[in-house]
Structures are given as structure tokens and as C-alpha cells.
Amino acid sequence: PGPPPQSRTPATPDTLAPDWYTAPELAPILTGRDIRGLYRWLNQAGVSQRRIAALTATSQPQVADIISGRRARVMVYDVLARITEGLGVPRERMGLSFWDLMAPGTAPPTPTLEGSRSPTPGRGRTPPCSAAT
Questions:
Q1: For the chain, what is the HEC assignment?
Q2: Per residue in 13-30, pLDDT tens?
Q3: Model pTM?
């Protein structure tokens, strides 16, 4: 991805506009969880590596390694969530929040294991994600 278009100013040096992540060219970067592409885009938009590091609770050398490709692709959910929160990107933009995409008032689905039945009483098993009583 190239630098941000001149007509849109998503960032000034070391600051981010509130809706910077809505730039059309960022959609595939965000949905693909391409942190390298995201950091490069921010850097080209004028946000320093130090500022990116501060916002995402990491170090500037780690940001530099990600931008240069020396560091492996970021795949860990907790790290991706920390990056989105630090940069102010809604989690659903990166496919990290199923619940945010649900219609208001919709109850979450009951978790089940595919092909499994309800636990047999007396066997000491509880379904996943349910509290034992």
C-alpha cells in the first residue's frame, strides 16, 4: 500500500485523526490483520515508529522489525487486540470481535462442540463456556 492520499489527512506527525482507520486503502490491511502493512501506512502518514510503539505498548525496535519484515507476522490474538486498542481501531475492523457485528439485542449463540451431545448427568463434564453450578 502506498502513502495515504493527499486529499485525506489521516495523521499529522505523531497524531491520529479520530477516524483515520476508515481510509479505503486500509480495509484489506485491517481485515488481513497485516500489522506490517498497517505500521508502514502509519509511518508513511507521518506517525513515528516511537509513537506507534508507545500506542501499542511495544518497543521502537520491535516496530522497526515488523515494518522491515525481520519480525514474523503478528498472529497472537492478545497482541492483535492490544494493537487495535492502542491505535483506536475498532476490533471488528480486524475481525477480532464477533459480538460487535451482531445486531443489537441479539443473544450470543450457545457454544457447542460439533457432533457432541449434552453432557451426561453424573459424568462430571460441563459444556464449554458455561459456569459449573
A1: CCCCCCCCCCEECCEECCCHHHCHHHHHHHHCCCHHHHHHHHHHCCCCHHHHHHHCCCCHHHHHHHHHCCCCCCCCHHHHHHHHHHHCCCHHHHCCCCHHHCCCCCCCCCCCCCCCCCCCCCCCCCCCCCCCC
A2: 567 788 899 999 999 999
A3: 0.64
